[in-house]
Amino acid sequence: MSAAATGGPGTGTPPPKLSLRGLRLGYRSEGRRTLALRDLDLDVAEGEFLALVGPSGCGKSTLLKIIAGLVTATGGTVRLDGRPAPEAPERVGLLFQNDALLPWRTVADNIRFPLAIAGVPAAEQRERVRDLISAVGLDDFGHYYPRRLSGGMRKRVALARILAADPDVFLMDEPFGPLDAQTRARISADFLALWEKVGKTVVFVTHDVDEAITLADRVAVMTAGPGRVKEEYRVDIPRPRSFDDVRFSAPFRELRQRISRSLAEEFDPTR
Ligand code: ADP
Ligand code: MG
What we know:
The protein contains 8 helices and 10 strands. It has about 270 residues and is α/β, with parallel strands linked by helices.
């Protein structure tokens, strides 16, 4: 193997955007210790969309919390751009199942929030908010309060807000999970199109293998808890992808079968 193929200093290959090595995390609660992650290694390249699938309780949410700096690993390293993370946690954006909108602010003001914190000038804030509202399909709803919105619309606001924050790495934890199938398909399709334009690094947790393959460049499968990355599958389906058509392609069906089998091996009927 040539030096260039191995990457690293002096080889001209940039370090991975995100690099996790030997991650371990134990929780202690009510006198009991649960090992949530063990020996987890994972690299994510700049601009790569990585989907993470694994059985319930295998440590997916824990992993995202560690990357975001909300939980400190008991062992191992997290590097962002080759440096120990989180040096600058604002470079990492989180979208959880719970959309966490501010109920006392309108749609526009929720989306504006990260821009105001970043000190973006007022005129530019207004322009960017207008563009983002449009990008997520919420024209005419800017003055609404979150309580008047459907679950899908709230998700769209949360999505616009994370796009406004414009982090280097998007961490998404089953973001569309609680929505009904129809709404979920529409918002996933819109998200796919938006992401294909911005091309930011994404780690996207989902329990839905179809969603993982449709969206991602690579799917990592985790073992049952304590989780580690067991297998990785490259998704060689060209972009831009059509959300509705991609699942009928031969590579999609083949990948779905392999990934589903790999996941099934981790299923524990006692959980
Ligand atoms: P996943 O998101 O894959 O379902 P989690 O990361 O939420 O998994 O949890 C991994 C394991 O750690 C589970 O066994 C869960 O019960 C345990 N766990 C998660 N959070 C806590 C906590 N705050 N205290 C104690 N145990 C926890
Ligand atoms: Mg979880």
